[in-house]
Specification:
The structure holds 2 protein chains of 2 kinds.
Chain A: H1 2-20, H2 24-46, H3 68-99
Helix pairs in contact in A: 1-2, 2-3
Chain B: H1 7-22, H2 29-50, E1 56-60, E2 73-77, H3 79-102, H4 109-128, H5 132-150, H6 156-187, H7 192-198, H8 204-221, H9 230-236, H10 239-265, H11 270-291, H12 297-324, H13 329-364, H14 380-394, H15 400-414, H16 418-443, H17 459-474, H18 481-487, H19 489-496, H20 500-506
Classes of the chains: A mainly alpha, B mainly alpha.
Chain lengths: 112, 508
């Protein structure tokens, strides 16, 4: 249970970064932390204490396995996360070239 | 026929990759491939609708069920999916047609078409997926393609809009992923039909997951407390993309999933139904009042998207509320039909309005209503089709918007929600006022001297706009019961059967 609570705290830290920070790069870091907390949560769902890897091999022993499906899911989620973060960073660099700053308060073309 | 279903994902995805690989040597390939591909898929959609009431299930990989557990990845096409397929195909085709001339100014035309195809493939995937994790993956394909397309011209405003859109879109995706985690935790399955079977009866946990899902997909659909990204993203994008975003994307990856999950997968419960109805009403009112003060043509349209999606959610929410409280099924049927009909209509008239705004911007180089004026004589097709779309969105009789709004209002009166009916009428009047403003400033009044020599936009743009204006009139026919029985009734039936969805899809 304590692990899930820590995972939730990580999520809130990321959310704090996204909402409160004024620097584009720090917002992206906050977003990344949020993503890792969700990935950690998915891994925790599949985890079983003192279980073996879910691979049938020579030294195969019976007994509880950890659930492999969430692991397959997070692999996909990590790849998607890579794409979104690469895109976010490239947009941040373009914004820096246009404004000469990472400060979000200086970008106010879109109001109202 | 089952084996035709994967083509919806395979064809646009293949087109996207071919245009990127071959586009380097052969520029025109993007246009040569995209139009026939979408034309074929439109035809396929009409064929599916003509076969309609049946539900088609395709198992990717062909794995059979093991011990009653579905192993294959499902692609499901039922009545409700067919409506979304129709929207994506028809609007996608017309937007691609419009782009033929519009994108001539872009330096990287083939990348534009590749991304457009990727976005379309993602949306087809979302509506066809019978598996919640694949739904998430397709949703991300569509979202990432749309993030890039919003910033396609890489100017200050567009970069800013796409950054905001990406952060909020990313947060919504994470909420959805967390909700998927919770669902997998309790049910031990990812298959939508199997989830409907395994999910326990209503309890606190289910409410928690529902809240996560509503906030996640509500952000994607830009319902009111979550709407702040929409006006920026939709107004900054190139116009054909604005038309795709407003006309199709928020429906396919937002509204569709909310409706599917809360009708067919999670049992309808009164609190959620009430929340959805309230969110719909709020979107409807706040959207229109934010719209009326705008002077940027596309920004005004973007705010109207929020308001019009409010009507859709209101209709669907009322249907849910009536079903949850054990009201008359015929009234719920009317409310849901109205909501879906309005969704279909909105995709056409709002896409058309964005194309009009794009055409005005293409010719004059500005979209500020204060700087425009008197274009109705110079650009007759644009102003004429814009007139048709404006009448449709404000609910003036011969056009399609009138019939869907009147259905929602009748349903509200019959169900005894008089306040909602009154609000729907008021919002419709304010919409009319704001489109009167658009026409007064953009198309009538004095022509500024620098626009003396403007001409109508190029052929493919004019053709796409005229076809859409024609559709605005033709779709009014769906009010005729025999036509409605073909297009709308299967969709409504698919929703009204609620959690029987699982037994139909799993075949037991």
């Amino acid at each position: 249970m304590i692990l899930f609570i820590l995972c939730f705290i990580l999520f809130v830290i990321g959310l704090y970064g996204v909402i409160m920070q004024r620097n584009l790069i720090k917002i992206i870091i906050g977003f990344a932390i949020m993503e890792y907390s969700v990935i950690l949560f998915l891994i925790l769902i599949g985890y079983i204490d003192a279980a073996t890897v879910p691979i049938i091999s020579e030294s195969f022993e019976s007994g509880p396995f950890v659930d492999p499906l969430p692991q397959a899911m997070i692999l996909t989620a990590i790849v998607i996360g890579l794409a979104t973060k690469a895109l976010l960073l490239s947009v941040a660099i373009r914004l820096y070239k246009k404004y000469g700053s990472f400060d979000i308060r200086e970008m106010k073309n879109l109001r109202g | 026929m089952n084996s035709l279903i994967p083509l919806y994902v395979v064809i646009p995805l293949g087109t996207a990759f071919l245009t990127i690989i071959l586009g380097r040597w052969f520029k025109a390939i993007s246009k040569i491939l995209t139009i026939p591909a979408l034309l074929f898929l439109t035809g396929l959609t009409f064929y599916l609708i003509s076969q309609s009431p049946q539900t088609i299930v395709y198992r990717v990989g062909g794995f059979a069920d093991l011990l009653d557990i579905p192993l294959a990845i499902f692609l499901v096409a039922d009545g409700f999916t067919n409506i979304l397929l129709l929207i994506i195909s028809v609007v996608g085709l017309l937007v691609a047609l419009y782009s033929l001339d519009y994108t001539k100014r872009f330096s990287a035309e083939e990348k534009f078409y590749a991304l457009l195809n990727l976005m379309i493939a993602g949306m087809y995937g979302v509506v066809l997926a019978g598996d919640i994790f694949n739904l998430y993956v397709f949703l991300e394909i569509a979202s990432i393609a749309s993030y890039v397309l919003v910033a396609f011209n890489i100017e200050k405003q567009q970069l800013e809009a796409t950054f905001k859109y990406q952060i909020l879109g990313g947060v919504s995706s994470l909420l959805i992923l967390a909700a998927i985690g919770f669902i997998y935790w309790t049910t031990g399955t990812l298959n939508l039909a199997d989830i409907a079977r395994q999910l326990p009866d209503a309890n606190a946990f289910q409410i928690f997951v529902s809240v996560l899902l509503i906030s996640g997909f509500g952000l994607k659909a830009a319902m009111v407390p979550f709407h702040s990204w929409l006006p920026d993203a939709h107004s900054s994008a190139p116009s054909p993309i604005s038309a795709m975003l407003s006309g199709v994307l928020i429906k396919a990856i937002g509204i569709y999933v909310i409706i599917r999950l809360f009708f067919n997968i999670i049992q309808i419960n009164p609190q959620i139904a009430l929340t959805v109805t309230i969110l719909g009403t709020l979107s409807m009112i706040i959207g229109v009042f934010l719209a009326i003060g705008q002077w940027d043509f596309k920004r005004l349209l973007a705010y109207h998207s929020i308001s019009q999606m409010g009507y859709v959610i209101l209709g669907i929410g009322m249907g849910m509320l009536i079903l949850a409280n054990g009201g008359k099924e015929s009234i719920a049927n009317l409310a849901i039909t109205g909501g879906l009909f309005h969704m279909l209509n909105h995709s056409i008239f709002k896409a058309l309005l964005f194309l009009n705004a794009g055409s005005v911007e293409y010719i004059t180089g500005t979209r500020s209503l204060q700087k425009l004026g008197g274009l109705s004589n110079k650009m007759q097709i644009t102003s004429g089709s814009s007139f048709a779309a404006s009448m449709a969105i404000s609910g003036i009789p011969p056009f399609n918007g009138f019939f869907s709004k009147i259905m929602i209002i009748f349903a509200a009166i019959q169900a005894g929600y008089y306040w909602l009916a009154l609000l729907a009428v008021i919002v419709s009047i304010v919409t009319l006022a704001s489109f009167t403003k658009v026409h007064k400033y953009a198309f009538y009044g004095d022509l500024p001297s620098k626009y003396e020599n403007v001409k109508e936009s190029p052929f493919s743009m004019a053709l796409a706009m005229s076809l859409m204006a024609l559709l605005c009139l033709i779709m009014s026919l769906m009010i005729v019961p025999s036509v409605r029985a073909i297009f709308l009734q299967p969709a409504v039936d698919a929703l009204m059967q609620t959690t029987n969805y699982s037994s139909i899809v799993l075949g037991k």
